[in-house]
Automatic annotation (TrEMBL):
Protein family (similarity comment): Belongs to the cytochrome P450 family.
Residues binding heme, per UniProt: 458
A GO molecular-function descriptor: iron ion binding
GO BP annotations, alphabetical order: lipid metabolic process
Cofactor field: heme
Name of this protein: Cytochrome P450
CDD domains in the record: CYP86A
Keywords: Heme, Iron, Metal-binding, Monooxygenase, Oxidoreductase
Keyword Metal-binding appears in the UniProt entry: yes
Domain of life: Eukaryota
């Protein structure tokens, strides 16, 4: 074939490809290629062929606010968007839809294959990532352990022990030296020590360690990478490329090795201790007495998944809830003063020294509960979640769902929507949680899914609330915190809602 013919052929192919691309761009002019135009659902238009992919990339560090902005732009509680390489996403902030997916039609919506794939390396087959019979069995076993009264007292004893260490070695010293302290970092170390002790029966002593704790650093990095997998469909490629061009950065596999080695070493050591007749009451030891769905003793891998899921659930969310609570208290002195009055009226030195009495006193502190609930309305521990539709369906608001669709809901955005919470939705107002009779109000799980909802409602909901309030009471009663000026207090996009830049505070005694 002559060079002229080759040139003509190449030109023809090029023109055909360009014509095909132009045709596809004209047909898929506002959505990702091969995505159908879904009638009956309001949608956010995107760019030809790639859909909303550029928008997602642009706002990946403020994704929760992006969803809130979409509500304000289109004035709808449910809409769909199309992203190249991502299965169909339907975002809903409508409480009736959220409750329907979580509770009323629970069996039709599961953690889908994309969710499981992204979460598997860190979460394994633990309760967060499990579905069906495996999830039901773990849930049943865990519920027995969490409902034991002495486990509640053990929780409180551990928290109080760690709080006293934190006050003596960090806050009292900060008062003396008048040096700023990163409150968020301290809360993470405090809850890491508490939950590793509760979960594995090991004193990690993160609070007594200056700088980073290797396990904590690996654990946190693995979680951040897991969330990026959650929103990046081609994460296998992006992680490979990142490692290729940035080989000095620690890989996900390296972080997982640190986490796995810690869990495995503790588990094997505990097996030997129990074999030698030692008695341990931590979560690991309690689960060692249980069996799996096949009636067999739990393997080291199964124990690793179960206990790490517990640590993730309790440690991160409690640290973040405490951090956001004190941020809001420092920003709202009226609320702080009212909370301090209730603490002084209900908490004595005697009750602080007795876990059972402290628990009884906290139960009756309505305003403290209201403050905590209002913080979780603004800063929910799990700010974004999703389920996978197993079959065609119609949501309560009339939105058609097809098998394989992903339903997203964003509690962070929900808590700021006037159509859900009224014209004062963006205000921090704990009083909204107390009715005319002075009793705590209960909101539906669809409106306030801070602890998830339906059959998968957080098993540790009451323990988490109790322990957060224990921390709040001890610290508010003894110290006055103030924000160091000039900080950017915002969230880090992750599975949960940590503070991106920490939160430096000054502290003085009351």
């Amino acid at each position: 074939m002559s060079s002229t013919s080759t040139t003509l052929t190449a030109a023809t192919v090029g023109k055909a490809a360009l014509a095909t691309l132009v045709g596809l761009a004209a047909y898929y002019n506002d959505r990702a290629i091969f995505d159908e135009n879904r009638k009956g659902i309001p949608y956010q238009p995107g760019l030809p062929i790639v859909g909303n992919l550029p928008l997602l990339i642009e706002h990946k560090d403020q994704i929760h606010d992006m969803f809130l902005e979409a509500y304000h732009r289109y004035n709808v509680l449910t809409l769909t968007f199309s992203v190249l390489g991502v299965p169909r996403q339907i975002l809903t902030l409508d409480p009736q839809n959220v409750e329907y997916v979580l509770k009323n039609n629970f069996e039709s919506y599961i953690k889908g294959p994309a969710f499981h794939g992204a979460m598997n390396d860190l979460f394994g087959d633990g309760i967060f990532n499990a579905n069906g019979d495996e999830w039901k069995y773990q849930r049943k076993t865990a519920s027995h352990i969490f409902n034991v009264k002495n486990f509640r007292n053990q929780f409180t004893d551990v928290f109080v022990e760690e709080i006293h260490y934190m006050m003596d070695n960090i806050w009292d010293k900060a008062v003396e030296t008048q040096t700023p302290v990163d409150f968020h970092e301290i809360m993470f170390k405090f809850t890491l020590d508490s939950f590793i002790l509760l979960g594995f029966g090991v004193h990690l002593n993160a609070l007594g360690t200056k700088g980073v704790v290797p396990f904590a650093e690996a654990f946190d990095s693995a979680q951040r990478t897991t969330f990026q997998r959650f929103i990046t469909p081609v994460w296998g490629v992006t992680e490979f490329v990142a490692q290729l061009f940035q080989p000095w950065k620690t890989s996900m596999n390296s972080h997982l090795r640190v986490v796995d080695d810690f869990a495995r070493n503790v588990t094997e050591q505990r097996r030997e201790q129990l074999k030698n007749g030692e008695v341990h009451k931590d979560l690991l030891s309690r689960f060692m007495e249980a069996s799996n769905a096949q009636g067999e003793p739990l393997s080291n891998d199964e124990l690793r998944d179960i206990v790490l899921n517990f640590v993730i659930a309790g440690r991160d969310t409690t640290a973040q809830a405490l951090s956001w609570t004190f941020y809001m208290l420092m920003s709202h002195p009226r609320v702080e003063a009212k909370l301090l009055d209730e603490i002084n009226a209900n908490i004595t030195e005697e009750s602080l020294a007795d876990s059972a009495k402290l628990y009884e006193a906290i139960k009756d502190m309505k305003y403290a509960h209201a403050v905590f609930y209002e913080v979780l309305r603004h800063y929910p521990s799990v700010p974004l979640n999703q389920k996978y539709a197993l079959q065609d369906d119609v949501l309560p608001d009339g939105t058609p769902v097809r098998k394989g669709d992903h339903i997203l809901w964003c509690p962070y955005a929900q808590g700021r929507v006037e159509a859900i919470w009224g014209p004062d939705a963006k205000q921090f107002k704990p009083e909204r949680w107390i009715n005319e009779k002075g009793e705590l109000k209960r909101e539906s799980q669809g409106k306030w899914p801070a602890f998830h909802g339906g059959p998968r409602t957080c098993l540790g909901q009451h323990l988490a609330t109790l322990e957060a309030l224990v921390g709040i009471i001890f610290l508010v009663r003894k110290y006055k915190f103030s924000l160091v000026p000039g900080q950017d207090i915002t969230y880090q996009v992750s599975l949960t809602l940590p503070m991106k830049n920490g939160m430096k505070v000054m502290v003085e005694k009351r």
